[in-house]
Amino acid sequence: MKSGSGSLELTRLATAYVASIAFGVTFLTASLSGVDGVTALVRSITTGGIAMVLGWFLATPVVDAVLTAMARDEAARRAEAAKEDDA
Predict the structure, then answer these.
(1) Span 50-72, mean pLDDT?
(2) Average pLDDT along the chain
(3) Which terminus has fewer CB within 10 Å in the chain: N or C?
(4) Which residue has the higher pLDDT, 49 or 85?
(5) Angle between helices 5-32 and 37-86 (to 10 degrees)
(6) Are 4 and 60 in contact (CB under 8 A)?
């Protein structure tokens, strides 16, 4: 299945959320553990970058599967409504 612009936008959005959560959790964990601020920032940026790359590869099939399932459900609902209108 070829990804459309809506699918790419949702994938980017999901990846951004995953990366920002990974960054925040890593930064807070490092800060609360007593790590120096620069070290916490470097660790957080590294974790955020890794999460962004992995998130892009993992979110694409998930978003496509969800959108396909939603389209299939909508088509079934419309077919059922058309069937009821005919009867």
Answers:
(1) 91
(2) 90
(3) C
(4) 49
(5) 150
(6) no
